């Protein structure tokens, strides 16, 4: 019901007919193939208990696909606060879904763009911890180290860079990690 684009290297321009998005290394974009089903109206039914006053039923959480689409649209529009809110909700609501790994990575990128470098480092750490041998692990480890550096926490930056180099001594970001860990 959707198509995913993941960029490992370089930049890719994606035009889904409604918007044009430029993706860079580590970016993901999910595009719905079908028109989304209109959101059902909020429930109007009430719940009562033992003759007590009516209580409005709580709305259910948005679907994972709705949250991904919302985050993608917000990022494309430059609304980083809305993008992070959608990604945070997705991670909290669907922590065991395989797509939560890339949501952590994307959240890290959104936080970095927002200047929230400590939060970015934590998001990148959660990404690689959730899938230590996954396709985003190397990038997430390097991004974690860079985020700690940007946050001014050189102790954490060196520790993350050391961890990266121990795992990927000839990795894509080895030169950059050596600069963070002289």
Briefly say what this structure is.
With 182 residues, the chain is an alpha+beta fold. It has helices at 64-76, 80-93, 99-113, 117-130, 137-150, 154-167, 174-180; strands spanning 2-6, 12-15, 20-23, 28-32, 46-47, 55-56. It contains seven helices and six strands.
Produce the secondary structure layout.
Blueprint: E1 2-6, E2 12-15, E3 20-23, E4 28-32, E5 46-47, E6 55-56, H1 64-76, H2 80-93, H3 99-113, H4 117-130, H5 137-150, H6 154-167, H7 174-180
Antiparallel strand pairs: 1-4, 2-3, 5-6
Helix pairs in contact: 1-2, 2-3, 3-4, 4-5, 5-6, 6-7
Molecular structure report:
50% of the residues lie in helices and 12% in strands. By secondary structure, the protein is α+β, with helices and mostly antiparallel strands. The strands form 3 sheets. It has a two-stranded antiparallel sheet. A hairpin with a 7-residue loop joins β5 (46-47) and β6. α1 (64-76) packs antiparallel against α2. The longest helix is centred in the middle third of the chain and has 15 residues, at 99-113. The chain is globular. Residues 35-58 have low confidence and may be disordered.
């Amino acid at each position: 019901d959707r198509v995913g684009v993941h960029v490992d290297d370089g930049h890719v321009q994606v035009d889904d007919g409604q918007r044009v998005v430029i993706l860079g290394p580590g970016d993901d974009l999910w595009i719905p193939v079908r028109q989304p089903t209109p959101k059902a109206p909020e429930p109007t039914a009430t719940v009562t208990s033992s003759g007590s006053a009516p209580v409005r039923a709580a709305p259910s959480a948005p679907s994972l696909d709705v949250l991904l689409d919302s985050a993608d649209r917000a990022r494309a529009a430059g609304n980083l606060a809305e993008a992070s809110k959608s990604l945070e909700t997705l991670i909290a609501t669907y922590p065991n879904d395989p797509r939560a790994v890339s949501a952590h990575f994307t959240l890290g990128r959104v936080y970095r763009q927002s200047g929230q470098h400590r939060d970015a480092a934590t998001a990148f750490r959660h990404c690689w911890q959730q899938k230590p041998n996954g396709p985003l692990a190397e990038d997430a480890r390097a991004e974690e180290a860079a985020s700690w550096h940007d946050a001014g926490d050189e102790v954490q930056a060196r520790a993350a860079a050391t961890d990266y180099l121990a795992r990927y001594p000839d990795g894509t970001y080895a030169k950059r990690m050596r600069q963070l860990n002289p």
